[in-house]
């Protein structure tokens, strides 16, 4: 019987919108695409989520790796990248409604300590949950199966085939499925609620 729901955070329980954020700088399309890919689409952002390198080191690596004429703009984008985060009105009611039905709620998210410290009100739901694991705590990122194993080691009461994992990334959901979790690829709140209710209903029929 399903008794546990495990959520990704970015693009699921909070908004994470690099494409909207970078448009506020009003760069020309070529620079915008280049900076978005260089900062959010590559190894630098993964290094931030891993929590192994300090923020300043990653910042220096970005400065050294981008086209020199874009360097100052790249650092401006990176330094304010916490502005990609926004609060979702549905998050707390959703968590509370699941808990009211006796379900345990956890999070498993690629997230940096630097970003956690700057996400403020958007993460106000964390104290309501039964627990979770950030990538920066484990030094691992999804879809690496090792981060799922680290989560299970932290919460041995969680059983994969009694748990549903929700994530906006199909690769992350596939990794969870391979380990025996139920999985839902999150596209939007309404779709995820529908699919979760199907799983919960089938489990109880």
Describe this structure in words.
This protein is α/β, with parallel strands linked by helices and 205 residues long. 50% of the residues lie in helices and 14% in strands. It is built from eleven helices and seven strands. The chain has helices at residues 18-23, 29-40, 43-50, 55-65, 71-79, 91-100, 113-119, 135-138, 145-154, 170-178, 189-204; strands spanning 4-7, 14-16, 85-87, 104-109, 131-134, 163-167, 182-185. The strands form two sheets. It has a five-stranded parallel sheet, with helices on both faces. It is elongated and about 60 Å long.
State the main characteristics.
205 residues; alpha/beta; 5-stranded parallel β-sheet; two-stranded antiparallel sheet; 7 strands
Number of E-type strands: 7
Q: What is the mean predicted local confidence, pLDDT?
A: 96
Q: Can you give the helix content as a percent range? A: 40-55%
- Topology as H/E string? EEHHHHHEHEHEHHEHEH
Number of helices: 11
Structural class: alpha/beta
Strand order of the largest sheet: 5-4-1-6-7
Oligomer: single chain
Question: What kind of sheet is the major sheet?
Answer: 5 strands, parallel
